[in-house]
Each structure stands twice: as structure tokens, then as C-alpha cells.
Amino acid sequence: MCDQSPSVSSKADSSSTHGVSFAHAQEQKPLIFLLSIKQLSKKISRSRASIYEMINSKSRYFQPLMPQPIRIGRRVYWVSHEIDAFVEATMAARPLSLNH
């Protein structure tokens, strides 16, 4: 007698060189991409120090809409779609005419 129990396949966490993404096989949620400080710096054209000033509420360069990072172990990441929303909000808040 051969026991044919249904096989359970689980997708391993996928990662890319452009960030870390996590997805569970049972859920149909969109992938969440995480950006390292280096990737974030390149994406928004700001230095590492400038980014940390933007999230520091005691800094004169504090940006209240800038997403706070998440920590995984000793590493720090930003959620890519939150950064995209921050950039879009910043774009929407700018003056329509840049001509002086």
C-alpha cells in the first residue's frame, strides 16, 4: 500500500540583488521589497548621513513623512513602496511652476 499524501510545496523566500523580498506561499499579498541604506541612498540621491538626519525627529532636517526603517537583526531596511509613497508625496507638495 502506497501512502500518497498531498505534497506540500512551500516557496522559499525570494531575494534579489536589488533588495530583499519576502512572500508566503499561502498568501496572495504583493511582494514587499526592502532597501538597504546604500540602495535607498542611490534611489533618492541622498547621502547616508542625510537620510539619517531626515528620520531624526530632533534634527533640523527632519522630514515627518519620511518612513522609518525596520530592523532585521543588526541590519536596517526601508520598505520600498513606503519610500515610493514618500517621493510621490514630496512631488505632489512642490510648487507647480519651477520658473522664477
From TrEMBL:
Biased composition, class Low complexity, residue ranges: 1-16
Entry superkingdom: Bacteria
Signal peptide: none
Stretches for region Disordered: 1-21
Name of the molecule in the record: Prophage CP4-57 regulatory
Organism (species): Variovorax paradoxus (strain EPS)
Phylogenetic lineage: Bacteria, Pseudomonadati, Pseudomonadota, Betaproteobacteria, Burkholderiales
